[in-house]
Amino acid sequence: MRSREVEPRRAAAPETTHPAPRRALRAGPGRVRAWRLLGALGIVASFFAGLLAGPLLGIDPGATNDADAATAAIVRAEAPTSATAVPTASPSVASGGSGADDGTASSEPDCRGAKDTRSAARKKPFTVCGTALISKEHRVSAAYTPTLVTVNVRSNGIPNVLLQPVAGKALKKLFAAATKAGHTLVVRSSYRSYATQVHWYATMDQRLTAPAGASEHQSGLAVDLAGISNGALVHGTVLARSPIGKWLVKHAPAFGFILRYPSNQSKITGIVYEPWHFRYVGTEVAEGVVATKTKTLEQYLKET
Asked: What is the Cα 198 distance to its own chain's centre?
């Protein structure tokens, strides 16, 4: 018998810990289209989910836009404005009141044109927008005495220059500016008491002075000024034609002082032209007075 050939036995392949590699998956055209469709459906689903999330959670879709608008409004409100400041009911230290004098614009209504409803002279002066107004129509009583300080400036004919502190501080700056410009100023009259005004009115030309209770000198905010040129006193009506007088009219408002009784305005002020009489009202009010047609405090405060 022919022996049967026996096929040699193959050795078993060694085991490996790595799995056999898989065949790469090939995406056919149909499968690609399916993936694209699923992606599009996912985007649409996300869109509608976002729309529904707000109402379900109580969120206003326009809240972000509203917040941005509110922030912009605050920025606009705090930004500087070029609008001309209009006096409001807030009193001003610079005008004889008790508030701030920063010249900023305000949205409050114009406080000018207030009427003096007092039946008689009072312990305090009539004020409009914080600015004291003392005249024959708006008098103060003998009991009115403002807070005063002695102002260290040159004077003529009086022992001391007495003014309210804010006016005294401004006057010193005015004198310093005049000196720098080559002019010499002196004070001939400042604060007067009620009793002193009684004497003045009885002994002086009544066209040039006011009765007791009606004089601005009783406020501690007014001064009568003069100049010295070549050793001579420049005062009275001569002051108006002099370089120092012209300098005063031009530059005093920058320090808060106004020529209180300008020429040809006695029908408004009740006092004839006094080129020497300057009243402290603060820089904001001073600029406003100068801008009026008559350049009077009465017109600016709408008290004419």
From this structure: 40
Tell the CATH topology of 93-300.
Muramoyl-pentapeptide Carboxypeptidase; domain 2 (3.30.1380)
Which pLDDT score, from 0 to 100, does residue 112 have? 94
Contact 218, 144 (CB under 8 A): yes
pLDDT tens sequence across 45-102? 555 545 444 444 344 444 444 434 433 333 333 333 322 344 554 444 344 443 334 3
- Whether 222 and 280 have beta carbons less than 8 Å apart is answered as yes
Residue type, 248: L
Sequence-distant (6+) residues with CB within 8 A of 191 are 146, 148, 162, 163, 217, 218, 219, 220
CA 290 to CA 299: how far, in whole Å? 10
Domain residue limits, the chain: 33-62, 93-300
The pair of structure tokens assigned to 213 is 């209770």
What value does the mean pLDDT take over residues 100-127? 75
DSSP state of 172: H
Instruction: Please give the structure tokens belonging to residue 144.
Output: 């009115």
SS3 188: strand
CA 48 to the chain's CA centroid: 53
Give the pLDDT confidence of 1-44 residue by residue, as tens digits. 444 444 444 444 444 444 444 444 444 555 545 556 555 555 54
How many angstroms separate the CA atoms of 172 and 150, rounded? 11
Prediction pTM value:
0.67
| Residue 163: partners with Cβ closer than 8 Å, 6 or more residues away | 148, 149, 151, 171, 190, 191, 220, 221, 223, 280
